[in-house]
C-alpha cells in the first residue's frame, strides 16, 4: 500500500493514480459482480495483454483494492475479488455507469 507522502495532495489525483487506468476500471467493474479467475478476466477484457492484466492486478492488490486467493489444487486455482476498500468504489463505478448511459442517450 502506498504511503501518504507518496500520494498527490489532491484527492481526485489520488483516486486517479490508484484506479485511473482504463483496464483497472474495467477489472473493478467485473469484480463488483463476483470473484474472477485470471483467464476469465483476460477473455472478458478484450484487448488486454497478459502483462498489463498481471501488472494491474498486482498493483491493485498492493494498494489494498483487491484480494488474491490461491486455492491448494492442481492445477493452481487463483481468484481475484474486491477487498472491503475495493467495495467502497461501488458508488463511484455506479455513478460512472449512470453518467455513461445518460451521455449515450443524449447523443
CATH architecture: Orthogonal Bundle
Give the DSSP E fraction (strand runs of 2 or more residues).
5-15%
Q: How many angstroms does the end-to-end distance come to? A: 40 Å
Number of strands: 3
**What's the domain count?**
1
Low-pLDDT stretches are none
In CATH, the topology is named Arc Repressor Mutant, subunit A
- Rounded mean pLDDT score: 94
The topology string of helices and strands comes to: HHEHHEEHH
Shape: globular
**Strand order, largest beta sheet:** 1-3-2
What's the CATH H-level homologous superfamily?
Winged helix-like DNA-binding domain superfamily/Winged helix DNA-binding domain
- Helix fraction, binned, reads 55-70%
Class based on secondary structure composition and strand pairing: alpha+beta
* CATH class categorisation: Mainly Alpha
Radius of gyration: 15 Å
Could you explain the architecture of this structure?
With 107 residues, the chain is α+β, with helices and mostly antiparallel strands. The protein has one domain: Orthogonal Bundle (Arc Repressor Mutant, subunit A), CATH 1.10.10.10. It has 6 helices and 3 strands. The chain has helices at residues 11-19, 22-31, 38-44, 50-62, 84-87, 90-105; strands spanning 36-37, 66-71, 77-82. It has a 3-stranded antiparallel beta sheet with strand order 1-3-2. Strand 2 and strand 3 form a beta hairpin. The longest helix has 16 residues, at 90-105. The relative contact order is 0.14. The mean pLDDT is 94.
Amino acid at each position: 500500500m502506498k504511503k501518504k507522502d507518496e500520494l498527490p495532495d489532491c484527492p481526485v489525483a489520488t483516486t486517479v493514480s490508484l484506479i485511473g487506468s482504463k483496464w483497472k476500471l474495467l477489472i473493478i467493474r467485473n469484480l463488483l459482480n463476483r470473484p474472477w479467475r485470471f483467464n476469465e478476466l483476460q477473455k472478458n477484457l478484450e484487448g488486454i495483454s497478459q502483462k498489463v492484466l498481471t501488472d494491474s492486478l498486482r498493483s491493485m492488490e498492493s494498494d489494498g483494492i483487491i484480494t488474491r486467493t490461491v486455492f491448494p489444487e492442481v492445477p493452481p486455482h487463483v481468484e481475484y475479488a474486491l477487498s472491503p476498500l475495493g467495495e467502497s468504489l461501488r458508488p463511484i463505478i455506479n455513478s460512472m455507469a449512470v453518467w455513461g448511459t445518460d451521455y449515450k442517450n443524449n447523443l
